[in-house]
Amino acid sequence: MRRKNFIVGLIIFGVFMFIIISKLCNYRSLEVWQNSNKSLPSEVRIGYQVSPSGELLAKANGAVEKKFPNTKIYWEKYDSGREVVEALAKGLIDMGSLGTPPAVLGIANNVPYKIYYIDDIIGDSEALVVKKDSGISLFSDLKGKRIATTFNSSSHYSLINALKLNKINPADVELIDMKMPEIYSAWQRYDIDGAYAWEPVKSRLVSEGGKILITSEDLAKKGVVTGEVGIVQNDFASKYPNFLKEYISVLNDSVHQYRDKPEESAIALSKEFSLPKDETIKLMYGVTVLDAKDQTNPQYIGTENNPGGFAKVLKDTGDFLASINSIKNSPDLSVYQQAILNNLYQ
Fold first, then answer.
1. Which residue numbers delimit the Solute-binding protein family 3/N-terminal domain (predicted)?
2. Most buried of the four, 98, 224, 246, 297, by CB within 10 Å?
């Protein structure tokens, strides 16, 4: 009888302990979930431009919203990198994507952000396009001509370097500062002879009587490298590192889709560009998109223990901006190194 009571007691005790442990585990799971939830923002405002990239594909597919169902995602469209920098400086956005020259412009002016991702290296998606009836066949023909671009942009950087490489003084060319939509309108009105433009405007100029004099891919082969980067506001980066790491995973997946499934990606991106799928695919091949592993390459962002060389690209760009008086002076290389967030990578 005592043995039976002892066994019953053990069973009751076991059931009791099981209930206690289960409750503790549930409480711990809830606590972990709550702590994890606190590490994610309730909303994120992302500034973007309509330019071929893994991030634009992520937007088109709603991938960010799927990854962060409890975070409200706001996408804010801008026509230039300058506008992205200004918006972040005013606190209108938390993150954004832009070309290397405007990114450097912000760093030189102490706008509080870090570069956390290199979206792509620009190839023939940006080019100097001139009208076929403009009388321009060689770079020497550009003297006295009206050439438009968006100042302090990757296209502006490429245009000035293209002129210098071909021994043309930029002062001998009538350079006009315009946003991309304005460039397209000016082209149609015959107000300009040519433009250094990015997609989709570049392709529209070519389709409407334009010919390409040089591309950013041509310039990259000569050492003039331009790219598009992701920036994040400093306080946001400090407060939500887990969000950034997960956001990078979204970009990584989108880049793989971009590379491995171009047809599928083009269908999604064609809505962003308002172009047919076949034309969108051509735009996609105009840049070299980078995934998360590429970021750790020694020539790019690198890691916290092994910083990459991308700061040198930024420094060269800053020196250029200083030479054309877009900034007072280009900061030391160390300033650009500190502006790169490489502790998100291993």
1. 43-262
2. 98
